[in-house]
Amino acid sequence: MRVSIFAILPIALALASSVTAHYDDDFEARDYIDDLATRNYGDILGARDLLVDISTRDLVDELTRRTSKWTCQAAGCGQTFSEYAKVTAHKEKTGHKIGLTK
Fold this sequence. Notes:
Elements: H1 5-21, H2 26-38, H3 42-52, H4 56-67, E1 69-72, E2 80-81, H5 84-94, E3 98-101
Antiparallel strand pairs: 1-2, 1-3
């Protein structure tokens, strides 16, 4: 049984094209791991050391303080403040009681 070279040629070309179209992701993963291994984590670890000493309650209180508005609860005053520095100045100047506005 003889097989013509013209019959084998399309099969060989199809196999060759499927082999070259296959891409192996191993090299990309290896580059990513190498990047992680050589990355400088000094800044990240320094920030983590700072945050270790702060409790969750302190963080929530500070965020509440920075995003809240305060209202003077003294009769007839009713001033509203958005900056904590102005709240403390008003308290020291007038002696009024100030509360958070929800």
